[in-house]
Amino acid sequence: CVYANQWNYGHLGPDIWSEYYPLCAGKSQSPINILTACTLYRDIKPFQFISAHATKNYFTVKNNGHTIISIINNAYEQLSIQLRGGGLNGTFDFVNFHLHWGENHKSGSEHQINGIKYAGEIHFVYKNHLTSQMAVLALFMQSYVDHTKIISDNNDQTRDEWQRYFDMTRLLKFENDSVLLDLNVTSLMGENLQDFWRYEGSLTTPPCTEG
Questions:
Q1: 114-137 burial, b for 16+ CB within 10 Å, e for fewer?
Q2: Which homologous superfamily is 14-91+147-189 in?
Q3: pLDDT tens digits for 26-61?
């Protein structure tokens, strides 16, 4: 079980986050319900996944009391993971990736598409250290009887990489439990990452930083 004292989705849920984290009352908060009929098409340069996205990297995968978060383990000499393009301003360095899920296969995602939620949502978080701007690539997950599927995924490599991840994270039952796991970020993200919705928002959990 994942528990935390500072905030959660129960009695310390989103409705009162702004009482303790003022930024959560901002005007550009995430998540949102994306209404496809209200979106505008823009010809944006594709994302550029630089350096070590396509190689194995060692991650510390940890139950932090809110979610399961994966951070690069700096004890190993590894290439940096960076992101450009996609309408972003400059180069963004990888910070972490983490998951959001719910009590059933229909309510786990934070964002909605035309009012519809998905089983889960994966956030790949990046930061531009020159401007302090954050960028989050969010991927939806669908749940099937025998496995969980990333919406952008249509290959066995992505499915196998996530299966390795889930096999290990099942062991992280208590807060601060962690494991060391080598993962390929490109495989985790899957394919078809050049079609996306983009908007100016915030971190979806406290401190709810915008921009």
A1: eeebbbbbbbbbbbbeeeebbbbb
A2: Alpha carbonic anhydrase (3.10.200.10)
A3: 999 999 999 999 999 999 889 999 878 888 999 999
